[in-house]
Design brief:
Length: 193
């Protein structure tokens, strides 16, 4: 959360969509952002929360889970204005969902690619990516080299293949990479018939 008059300072320090920055630059910027911010709030979402949303166990899907967590942050910080990057193809429905759960009325801008269009949303993407990388490093300390945690990465693929059933607490069961390995192990070969 920032005062409106501090937003030009974000531009001056080089804030932009986190996908356009190296990890080293994101870390450097996150330190500067923390000094400029009025408040910062991060919510961690567990693998089981995501699985529940994907599997419909809590009446949500990933977009509505994100909306729910966004509302938690907004209600805690209590800003006058919020700009959100919308994960849903339906901007209107997403905006209405957010507004319906807020504790107070606010000005709400909801757009696609907002992290690219608005520096303030770029800040959120930088903080989120830096926090994600810290979490990945903590997992590596406990479980070994998991790679970056992206399904396209060969180290991550190898880790999932070798550990999907040894450390179920760190995997989203709804993740296609996990499901692929789980299905392989549960599938009988022709020789078993």
């Amino acid at each position: 959360m920032f005062e409106e008059e501090d937003i030009p300072k974000l531009i001056k320090i080089g804030v932009k969509d986190s996908k356009l920055l190296t990890h080293k630059k994101r870390i450097e910027l996150s330190k500067k952002i923390k000094k400029l911010a009025k408040k910062i709030e991060v919510i961690k979402v567990t693998p089981s929360e995501i699985d529940d949303a994907v599997n419909g166990n809590d009446g949500l899907n990933l977009n509505w889970l994100e909306a729910k967590k966004t509302v938690e942050i907004i209600n805690k910080l209590r800003p006058d204005k919020v700009i959100l990057d919308c994960p849903s193809p339906n901007l209107r429905a997403y905006k209405e969902r957010i507004l319906s759960y807020l504790d107070k009325k606010i000005e709400l801008i909801v757009e696609h690619k907002a992290d690219f269009k608005y520096h303030i949303v770029g800040v959120a993407s930088i903080i989120a990516k830096v926090e994600r990388e810290k979490e990945v490093e903590e997992i590596k300390k406990e479980y070994g080299n998991i790679g970056p945690g992206y399904p396209s990465n060969s180290i991550t693929q190898k880790f999932v293949k070798e550990n999907w059933n040894k450390h179920p607490e760190i995997f989203r069961k709804s993740w296609s990479t996990f499901k692929k390995e789980s299905n392989k192990k549960n599938q009988k070969s022709l020789e078993e018939f």
